[in-house]
Amino acid sequence: MAYEVPARVRENAATPIHDLDRYREHWSRAERDPDAFWLAVTKERIAWRKEPTQGLEGSFHTIADGPLSWFGDGELNVTESCLDRHLETQPDKVAILWEGDEPSDVRKITYRELHAEVCKAANALKELGLEKGERAIIYMGMVPEAAVAMLACARIGAIHSVVFGGFSAEALRDRVRDCEAEVVITQDWGLRGSKTIPLKNVVDEACQGEAKVKKVLVVKRTGDEVGWTEGRDVWWHDAVDSASPEHAAEIVPAEHPLFVLYTSGSTGRPKGVVHTSGGYITYTSYTHATVFDLRPDDVYACVADVGWITGHSYIVYGPLANGATTLMFESIPTYPDAGRYWDMVARHGISIFYTAPTAIRVLAAQGEEPVKKHDRSTLRVLGTVGEPINPEAWEWYYDVVGEKGCNIVDTWWQTETGGIAISPIAPATPTKPGSATYPMPGIIPSLRTPEGQVLRGPSQGLLCIDHPWPGQARTVWGDHPRFVATYFNHVPGAYFTGDGCRRDEDGYYWVTGRVDDVLNVSGHRMGTAEFESAIVSVDACAEAAIVAYPHPVKGQGVYAYVVAREGKAIDKAELQAACRKEIGAHARIDRMQIVPGLPKTRSGKVMRRILRKIAEGRGDELGDTSTLADPGVVEAIREGAVTSDD
Ligand code: 7RM
What pLDDT sits at residue 15? Predict the structure, then answer.
């Protein structure tokens, strides 16, 4: 190839991949002997204190007996891979390139500085009483201290749980309780698009009466006033700035939990998905370097939020393990104007840029001018994640942003997969707009019928993964049976993703979206059950059913069917407020219809299929409705269908 690859990676038989033959060879090798493949990858990429000799223990067939394990006899601390080892080779390289809400507000933190900050924060957390294995909730905006806090927890062997700063006090309290957090780390106020967000005050509301929370550590971001609980609340700057910049990392077994991240499913409350240390850092490092064709002088920018898995894996852990310069972006794509991303690309010389389809659609709607006015000649790889990308948005990204000169990587993965699972590998994989193309080495997908039968060749079905991989979630916090029931009961012996997918005649995968009751609105994953429970918390509401309908910008919109209690009137604003209160600011109903009843089977199950069709504007294609208890209800719903957004 025409370019240099870093010496330590060039030697490595497992990475990177520069042509399709090489990809096929690696994929086959990983399929034939996963243990040998992943042991080679991890030894090459990760700084172990005790190198593992074991690969996988356990299987999807025996998952009910307990979590599976990768690299079980290995010992490490992931922050040594992310920080310490880079001090020998590149201490002055920028690790975190932070761009604040105002474009002029930029901070560059080198590996040396980041290492010192993390050590200080680790010492401070220890001082506050946080012990190995205990949980800390991180409820922050995109400030560098959020990444420092995550790494500091990892450094002392504590388990972090980042909660997205848009979640409400109620949602935060649920998470604080579920993981029994000892410490909450937050900031006074958040700042996004010149708006302030009362993060500390929300923490105060969430932690009222939560005796388990011993300390709240508060970063000063805006300096605006906040409530203060003496004895519990501590300013970050008081506790961290004066702490020692040296800290001997706590060495833990490979399967020591690294973090819990709550994610929505089709039923019940969000689940605390657990990721562990050795497998997760191996998988995120490998996929980050491979998919994006990472090179030493890259300026890498993923504009997600650390509150989601994308931020964990591809802003913090993967990039830092690879010694990359990783951007943290506090603001929004349209502030101060729709050219913000491209202005950043020009000012920082960004070469790899990773965002979501919904952001691409928002910006495409603003025309080409805000893009063209900024120099994007440094860009080489453009990534997308979070939802299916429609071909029009893909083409706009490729033509207008990348000027037909960049590789597009449409990366399919999930909170549960830990890292990218199906994706083109730049520059090796020929792309098709809208397809995530091929599985990563080590990922063995299958398409299946609802009965679990494997479909061969070109087909459409339920997307499953048939063999374990190092980056996958190990369990649900405190509830392994729920983990098994959610992901492994549909198809015994395989992981069920919850997504539908088509495979074409060239073996390309086209993920079509969720087939369960999970909503994906602007790349935000939310459960219909969470919305429904928020709505029925309003006294006037007897019943509610939520479905998604296609939305031109957000991907999916939220359609609510609401049944009023006898003699009560429904106030739509009150329902919006309830969703905001129970879930968060990102949970908005787009279309609401008051209905006389919900279509149910004789056994009382809501027939969502019918509600989905009506919301999609296809109420005349309802198919078989013979199992309905009261067919009259459907007629009434169809007639009153809402066809424009609130
Ligand atoms: C990383 C992330 C996961 C769900 C997943 C899909 C959808 C994500 C793509 C995609 C089609 C993609 N984690 N999804 N990426 N669908 N193509 N490239 O988003 O846990 O929050 O969501 O997102 O439905 O199951 S997540």
Answer: 57
Q: Supply 623's token pair.
A: 């198919």
The best mutation among 499, 515, 556 to test binding of ligand 1, ranked by most ligand atoms within 8 Å of the C-beta, falls on: 499
Q: Are 53 and 254 in contact (CB under 8 A)?
A: no
pLDDT digits (tens, 9 = 90+) for 631-644: 889 999 999 999 88
| Residue 305 Cβ contacting ligand 1 at under 6 Å | no
Q: What residues does CATH 3.40.50.980 cover in the chain?
A: 111-253
In short, whether 423's Cβ falls inside 6 Å of ligand 1 is no
The residue contributing the CA closest to ligand 1 atom 10 is 387
Contact 150, 316 (CB under 8 A): yes
Pocket test for ligand 1, best of 303, 310, 413 (most atoms within 8 A of CB): 413
The tokens for 601 are 């089977």
Fold of 111-253: Rossmann fold (3.40.50)
The band of 621, judged by pLDDT with boundaries at 50, 70 and 90, is confident
pTM to 2 decimal places: 0.95
Stretch(es) of the chain classified as CATH 3.30.300.30: 522-639
Query: Does residue 99 have its Cβ closer than 6 Å to ligand 1?
Result: no
Q: Which residues pair with 439 in a beta bridge?
A: 422
Q: What is the pLDDT of residues 388-408, one digit of tens each?
A: 999 999 999 999 999 999 999
The CATH number corresponding to 5-86+280-443+466-478 among 3.40.50.12780, 3.40.1050.10, 1.10.3430.10, 3.40.50.300 equals 3.40.50.12780
Per-residue pLDDT tens for 235-260? 999 999 999 999 999 999 999 999 99
Give per-residue pLDDT as tens, 321-331: 999 999 999 99
Task: Identify the residue whose C-alpha is closest to ligand 1 atom 11.
Answer: 388
CATH architecture of 522-639: 2-Layer Sandwich (3.30)
Q: What is the pLDDT of residues 110-159, one digit of tens each?
A: 999 999 999 999 999 999 999 999 999 999 999 999 999 999 999 999 99
Nearest-atom index, ligand 1, CA of 520: 23
Does the beta carbon of 527 sit less than 6 angstroms from any atom of ligand 1?
no
Which residue's CA is the nearest one to ligand 1's atom 4? 414
Q: What's the gap in Å between 359 CA and the centre of ligand 1? A: 15
Cα separation, 442 vs 419, whole angstroms: 12
Residues 44-77 pLDDT 10s: 999 999 999 999 999 999 999 999 999 999 999 9
Where helices occur in 60-162 by DSSP H, the ranges are: 78-79, 85-89, 111-127, 144-156
> Which ligand 1 atom sits closest to the C-alpha of 411?
18
With the most atoms of ligand 1 within 8 angstroms of its CB, the residue from 520, 521, 554, 586 to mutate is 520
Q: For the chain, what percentages of helix, strand and coil (3-state, to nearest 5) are there?
A: 30, 25, 45
Q: What pLDDT is attached to residue 644? A: 84
- 520 CB near ligand 1 (under 6 Å): yes
Residue ranges, comma separated, of all CATH 3.40.50.12780 domains in the chain are: 5-86+280-443+466-478
